[in-house]
Amino acid sequence: MKKWLWILGLILGLNVHAQDILNVQVSSGVAVPLGTVASHDIKDSASGYTSTGGMLEFRMGIKPWKYIGVCISGGLGLLPINTKSIQNYAASQNGITTKATANNYRFGYASGGVLFAYRPPVRDRWILDASVTAGYLWAEMPDIGVVDAGTIYYKSYQSSGGGWMASANFSFRFRVYKSFYIGSGIEYLYARPQFTNLIVEERASGNTSTHQSSFTQPMSVIYWSGQLGVTF
Question: Which of these, 190, 195, 192, 191, lies nearest to 215 by C-alpha position?
Fold first, then answer.
């Protein structure tokens, strides 16, 4: 611990003329899913059926050079499920009007990468930055079901998966008081979590069938956030 404090102190000491050497922030905002994770194609086992949800993210950046540094980040996301296509499918197969139920699609990630930052000379309290990171993402397909009077007409069982992810972020920050700042940013996240043996149970014309599938799920999310942090 003392070694890392000494290294950080050295960086700060060598860059006393600079600003925004170290920044720590949390953000939250709207997450818009794209790609297969947002697909409603019931014939594609990789479909996620997700709709617009939210995210929470933590980021820390260290900038030992004037414009370039490194950063680490971690985030959690929650995406509601649009069950309309599954509900319509169960109705077409069985002639029922029962509504589908589902919990949320969840994911979390940890990543690290390169940070770029610029402070306009005529706007001392403004900071523009961008980052490119890569890491690992964990995701969870939720339980989705159409059940009536104890009879299962459609059931997709909860399944977890994971894989690599990459993101690109651009944001602007405004220092409101000494080291404290607020900001806003937009981030594009892409991932390919792999799911193994997702179990789906279906009922059609009085006959029940169960099948398993394994797949890679292309996942894109656009994250628009508000930020709160400190910078030194």
Answer: 195
